[in-house]
From TrEMBL, chain A:
The keyword Transit peptide is assigned to this record: no
Mode of membrane association: Multi-pass membrane protein
A cellular component annotation (GO) from this entry: plasma membrane
Matches recorded under InterPro entries: BPD_transp_1_N, MetI-like, MetI-like_sf
Pfam family, one: BPD_transp_1
Positions of transmembrane segments: 9-29, 96-118, 130-156, 168-184, 226-252, 272-298
Protein name as annotated: Peptide/nickel transport system permease protein
Molecular-function GO terms, alphabetical: dipeptide transmembrane transporter activity
Organism whose genome encodes this protein: Marinomonas balearica
The ABC transmembrane type-1 domain, residue ranges: 94-291
Superkingdom per UniProt: Bacteria
Protein family membership: Belongs to the binding-protein-dependent transport system permease family. OppBC subfamily.
Assigned keywords, A-Z: Cell membrane, Membrane, Transmembrane, Transmembrane helix, Transport
Automatic annotation (TrEMBL), chain B:
Keywords: Cell membrane, Membrane, Transmembrane, Transmembrane helix, Transport
Domain of life: Bacteria
Localisation per UniProt entry: Cell membrane
A cellular-component GO term for this protein: plasma membrane
Subcellular location, principal: membrane
Name recorded for this polypeptide: Peptide/nickel transport system permease protein
Comp. bias intervals (Low complexity): 1-18
A single BP term in Gene Ontology: transmembrane transport
Length: 305, 312
């Protein structure tokens, strides 16, 4: 098991380095940086001055390593647009996105697991079909459109919740639903399949034949085992949500990481863009690593691969 | 098994014996069984019918559309659809903020969604299948390298990278297709890799090797036809994925550019009016959802037909 974790950790670090190269390239593909930093009204001399000052005259590999070394120390340089360092911007926004992600995951889990269990217990009844339908529709719904629809219904027509901003916890409810609905179908399906598999297994038959109540069989014996892969999936989904938050945050004008990325992208503020890409990717890699470990603890066969 | 055999060595006695004829059962042609299965699977049937309608609507858009989708008419702005009390038969689904006929834009928009979905899925299909087949067939170091590339790709947040790249190269229909094609190949690679691994040691591959077939012949003529059914399922899923991503990119302003009637763009243009005229975002949004739903139903159905025992 330790060997497995170690090997996976090596791969994860390798992937993180590859991603760092990609996000570094992103900055350099965007055009001449010295000109971009200097601004449109600068002279050729000023541009050259900046080129030397920022180390942009050095070979690209050297530039990459000095960028990487500062990036590891969480120093991503200064934003072109905002009068701030990239790290200040990110540490200000990250808690909002993490709150949103955690809430969304909570909502998704809260709906997906009971629905999945119910669908499995009542297999092939209308409840099962309804659950499947919700999942299928959920996967087909464009997230930005669902978010707008939530605003129209709950903020504009019913006046229950605010339409945008992030001043109170109420402001997080609609965005979290919009983001969570996105992750729910896969979790629901996995719970259902897992439950069906477990409910058909020998030890459940033993538990039933011992005369245990159905509730005890389902919740104490079956769910406990069926839910572990769902936890692993939830970790992966949280990573997806961090990437997907860009749409939801821009619709609800929630000032999180996604909104920051969106502002930076539309203003060609590439130091911020590459930092956000890298941070989200590293989060995602870490969460996948966690999911791998959970799955391997559950299923020893996976450790060999 | 009989199918895999008949694909490679149809003249050999083995396949003749293992076919249905050998068992003495009445012969039901392959396509009849497939058709029965198709009609018997409700989701697949409904999905195909809806998708068929949308494809026809897209193809015949110039004949079906009551108006030119690009012609603006300032005196006819924001007319509500027909079910609304102020609706007119002239504009069945109403008009947008520039007085353009909504139904006509919707019909032409189907062309954009379907074109992007299909071409992006094909580009990513070629990339992913090539990588997956090579990894699965050769194994060892090739597999390690390609698996690493797949893992790296999976670690990149698709939407964020697509947005950043679109901002770099400028949004347009062609750019969206190329970007999505270059980003969405991961599932093809994963599926092609695992199905190839399963077939790598199959008898028909071994016999082709013994007969002296070249590696490229084995991969393209023997292996590929046998993993195709699994890949077609992935094509449908990635088509749906690409269509949703295009809509999202266009909604955020970095995808298909105005005045093209992309459905995502229509939602974005209608956003300012949604409080008082919610139909401006409801119509393109629901259409988008129905299209993606239909494609997903077809995909799920095809998967069930391949592996009838496991529904999920």
């Amino acid at each position: 098991m330790l060997v497995f974790i170690f090997r996976r950790l090596l791969v994860a670090i390798g992937v993180a380095i590859t991603v760092s190269i990609i996000s570094f390239m992103l900055l350099h593909l965007s055009g001449d940086l010295a000109t971009a930093i200097a601004g449109p009204e600068s002279t050729a001399d000023q541009v050259e001055e900046i080129r030397v000052a920022f180390g942009l005259d050095k070979p690209i590999i050297q530039q990459y390593f000095s960028w990487l070394i500062s990036a590891v120390q969480l120093d991503f340089g200064r934003s072109y647009y905002f009068q701030d360092t990239v790290m200040d911007l990110i540490s200000e926004r990250l808690p909002i996105t993490l709150t949103l992600g955690a809430l969304a995951l909570g909502i998704a889990t809260f709906v997906a697991i009971p629905l999945g269990v119910l669908a499995a217990i009542k297999q092939d009844t209308w409840i099962d079909r309804l659950a499947l339908m919700i999942a299928v529709v959920g996967q087909a719904m464009p997230s930005f459109w669902f978010a707008l629809t939530l605003i129209v219904v709950f903020a504009v027509n019913l006046h229950w919740l605010p339409a945008g901003g992030n001043s109170t916890w109420m402001h997080f409810i609609l965005p979290a639903i919009a983001l969570g609905y996105y992750a729910m179908p896969a979790m629901m399906r996995l719970t259902r399949t897992g439950m069906l598999e477990v409910l058909g297994s020998d030890y459940i038959r033993t538990a039933r034949s011992k005369g245990l109540s159905e509730t005890s069989v389902v919740f104490k014996h079956a769910l406990r085992n069926a839910v572990i892969p769902v936890v692993a999936l939830a970790a992966v989904e949280l990573g997806f949500m961090l990437g997907g938050s860009i749409v939801i945050e821009s619709v609800f004008s929630l000032k999180g990481l996604g909104q920051l990325a969106w502002d930076a992208i539309s203003r060609n503020d590439y130091p911020v863009v590459q930092a956000v890409v890298l941070i989200i990717a590293v989060f995602y890699i870490a969460l996948n690593f966690v999911a791998d470990v959970i799955n391997a603890m559950l299923d020893p066969r996976l450790r060999v691969r | 098994m009989s199918q895999t055999l008949s694909n490679s060595t149809s003249s050999s006695p083995v396949s003749a014996l293992s076919g249905p004829e050998a068992s003495g059962l009445p012969v039901v042609p392959e396509w009849r069984r497939a058709l029965n299965k198709f009609l018997g699977h409700r989701g697949l049937f409904i999905g195909s019918v809806i998708l068929g309608f949308i494809v026809l609507a897209a193809i015949f858009a110039p004949w079906l559309a009551p108006h030119d989708p690009y012609v603006q008419n300032i005196s006819q702005r924001m007319i509500p659809p027909i079910w609304h009390e102020k609706g007119t038969w002239e504009h069945i689904l109403g008009t947008d903020k520039l007085g353009r006929d909504y139904l006509s834009r919707l019909l032409y928009g189907a062309r954009i969604s379907l074109t992007i979905g299909l071409t992006a899925a094909l580009i990513s299909g070629v990339i992913g299948t090539t990588l997956g087949v090579l990894a699965g067939y050769f194994g060892g170091r090739t597999d390690a390298v390609i698996s690493y590339i797949i893992t790296t790709r999976l670690a990149l947040p698709v939407l964020l990278v697509a947005l950043a790249m679109a901002a770099l190269v400028g949004g347009s229909l062609e750019m969206v297709i190329i970007l999505l094609g270059l980003l969405l190949w991961d599932r093809f690679a994963v599926v092609a890799r695992s199905t190839t691994q399963q077939l790598r040691d199959a008898e028909f591959i071994a016999s082709a090797k013994v007969l002296g077939a070249s590696t490229s012949y084995i991969l393209i003529r023997e292996l590929l036809p046998n993993i195709l059914s699994a890949l077609i399922v992935v094509i449908t899923l990635e088509m749906a994925h690409a269509i949703l991503l295009e809509a999202t990119l266009s909604f955020l302003g970095l995808g298909v550019q105005p005045p093209l009637p992309s459905w995502g763009l229509m939602v974005s243009e209608g956003k300012a009016y949604m409080f008082f005229q919610p139909w401006v975002i409801a119509i393109p949004g629901i259409t988008l959802m129905i299209l993606v739903l239909a494609i997903n139903l077809v995909g799920d159905g095809l998967r069930d037909m391949n592996a009838p025992e496991g529904r999920n």
